[in-house]
Amino acid sequence: MQLNRVYFNVFQNKKLISPKSNIPCRIEFLSYTSSNFDHGNLFFETKFSLENDFFRKYLPLEKDLKIKAFERDFVLGNQLMMERMASMARRFSEWTIAEHIIDSELEEGDIIIKDGSLQTSHPNENQYVKNVFKKAKEKGVIFTGLSKTSRHTTDTRIPIISAIDRLSEDFKIPYKEWCYFPVPINKKTTEHKALIMVVKLNRYADTPFRFEIFKDQADNMTKNEILDLVSIIADYSRDRSLPGYPYGLIDAHLWARVRNEEILGYQAMLFSEITKLGMWKEINSHINTISTHDKLDEM
Amino acid sequence: MKSGQIVGGGLQDIYIREKSGSQMELGDLLVADGDNSDYTIIQVKDLAYRSQIPQQTLDLSAGMELEGYGDNLEFMQPELRNYLIARAKALIYVKKTGEEEYLTKSPKRLPSFFNSIRSIEKSDLEFLNPNKLEKSVYLGNIRSGSDVKNDVKVHIDLIKSLTHHILIPATTGRGKSNLVKVMLWSILDTEGAGILVLDPHNEYYGDHVKVGLRNHPKKDEKLDYYSPSKDNEEALTLSINIKKIRPDHFKGIGGFSSVQSEAMRMFFNKFKENWICEIAKGKDFETLKGMGIQEKTANVLKRKIETQLKVSVDPSDGNKCVFNSNLFVGGESGLSTISDIVDSLEKEKTVIIDSSKLTDFEELFVGSIISSNIFSKYKNFNSEDLNDKPVISIVIEEAPRVLGKEVLESGGGNIYGTIAREGRKFKIGLIAITQLSSVIPRPILANMNTKIILGNEMSLERSAIIDSASQDLSDDNRIIASLDKGEAIVSSVFTKFAVPIYTPEFNKFTKEYLKNISSKKEIKGVTEVLG
Fold first, then answer.
1. CATH code for the structural domain at B136-239+334-530
2. Residue B457 pLDDT > 80, yes or no?
3. What's residue B130's pLDDT?
4. ∠ Cα B524 B527 B530 (to 5°)
5. Of B53, B64, B80, the CB nearest to A241
6. Predicted confidence band at A186 (pLDDT cuts at 50, 70, 90)?
7. Which of A79, A216, B131, B299 is the most exposed place for a label (fewest CB within 10 A)?
8. A190 touches chain B (CB under 8 A)
9. Are residues A91 and A180 in the same domain?
10. Same domain, A58 and A136
11. How far apart are CA A121 and CA A151, in angstroms?
12. Higher confidence at residue B204 or residue A193?
């Protein structure tokens, strides 16, 4: 079971503005992911449980969340594999909701920043990404993503962000805020439709970040236009709480994060229902095997 | 318009997030509306900064700003992330049950969680008492923080409040005299009370320069003014014939020991109304022995009579009594002064005694003589007669001089202490003004059922007041400390909650009053009566 929460905000002239349409800024839903063997293949299936059925139109189709495990997934082990598959519901819904936001909230020339990479991790996700990018292109909304972390490394296995940051220091570049692009990517990841950049958005930022622009759009932008775009985002990255990180994403983090105590509430309700069904004893023994880790954490 | 939203807490401490720019203040009265024509009045007891940004980040950020690294940094959405939290307390729950009918309860329930909060308005205070009392004393206008609601005037029941004593505690310069002047002015306008004012600063009556009670339109019928100074043309002469003085007038005044008090009684028994002169003349050993008085005691008495009453003898004139002050006199003068004053008080007049030229002893002693006369007179009325009599209140400045623990314990009590404890039964009360409430015994403080608390920066004094207040003021320590001149809190058994007020400056108040009188207009605003 997973509690998913997707949040968006819209800023104009550095002020938070209310949504124009009736799309909720915060969409919350429970998802249930199970694994089943079908003709010798391991499948993961996710179902939604919505307190408010109004949210359903913003979510991906459940059929698209029936996902076959690849050989490489088995390397992760059962627990991690399940967690990864369960997170698909949230990842996919981020794309569907982004599409709605572009459709109903944004205008030509607006910029959307997704928290995280524009990279997809599953074939079923591609269709959703395509739809969003298509919508963005149609409306002239620039689609970008900003990642707090990046797994990309140089040939010498140094994280690419660190390497570029060090480069900027070594060369004593005369800019307090800067961006580096294009960051070359592994040719194998052909599905990645983004211009990858490394950006330092504020002079007091502890670290630069990975920033991406939807490739079709970036390809049609001049260098100055890209710099203007980054400058606009830099202007939104001056907040004292985390210089160099766009404030909209700080705000989104606060509203979208799921706190442990919230989960405990749902957990209690779930356990209560399981008990009513007379299945507590059986389920509890499964839970206990997993919760040993939590108990160790508490020591 | 101040506004906020309840975000937590309990009955003792309701936490309210302030809407940015509301500028809530300590002591602000706010309203949490209910769903059924009901609302709760709450009061801000404390304010604190709160931020969604971790303290460590704020500290660092301030450091950057201070050390010159703060360029290109800002607070995004400052109004959302940095704000004030008000700690408030529910004062009273009000439900409108009909036209001008209200049900009030001390708050036993909380306003709804996340309820919006707004500033108090005049209409929110209509529950106080729509049936206006005939006899009331004006104290000032209701105040929310430092915002004075000039259209809501605060009155308190004249008879009840005066009978049950009023304490006015404050340090110098917080507006005690101004408050008393405004109260006395208001009392001159009403009926049912006689007020004796011992005025050590001669500040209440006024003169050609300073506005005072003499400017009141009812001055001639309602105000008497006494002064020992013969130069004071406007005043009646305050001279008391020593024949009217009794030994018990000295009780607890003048530092007489029990032996000396007993000796005075012996003199009185033997010489009746001439007893003071006889002490001054001195008696031979045999006479004293016959009266059971030691020579040493008689000598001390003689000396005290000389120094305190300024009564001595002239050996060159056949040991005739000599009166060295205008205050205590012999012969036929001053025989009716005390009875005149008592009569005036019984006629619901305000009597001001200018004691500015008197010593501490003289002032208290004059007060003691008058008070004792009133007390014994009222005590002897049967209950029917007493019902028809006005309440009499004695305004006493620096009250610990007569109500302090030490004075009451060492001197065996005095008339002021007696009035404080028993006066209520006989419609006699005190308006005690003090800077030092802590030295007044707790039972007496508790007996003062109305406290008009002005600003006080002394923690010990605030504690004494709070501990003996009629309402729970345990959260008001900081508020009392921060009261500005003219601001006060009225805590009384006759008010439904501790009411914050602002007493207008006397000169402005009288100016407006007189202007309205001359144009035959009523004073602006609706009068609300508390209690």
1. 3.40.50.300
2. yes
3. 45
4. 155
5. B53
6. low
7. B131
8. no
9. no
10. no
11. 14
12. B204
